[in-house]
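Example (one chain per record):
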Amino acid sequence: MIDVQNKTVTRRSTPAEMNRMPSKELSVRRTASSKVFRLGENLFQSVLYADQVHFQDKRTGKWEEIDNTLVEEQDKEYG
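Predicted structure:
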């Protein structure tokens, strides 16, 4: 898609191009199940997840990362 009036061009980058580009997440563009990265040179990459990866902070309204770190716990009954 080419939008001459706003001077923007949308094209699909190859996976190899995407992997070479430095990226920075735009956290203000987060949703419950997506992230958007600025790749530079007016390129952006959206990453969509099947499940929720963020939760909305009730106090600030911002989408925050869900901490899915696993912690080993010794179960006295089974271990």
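Caption: The helical segments are 15-20.
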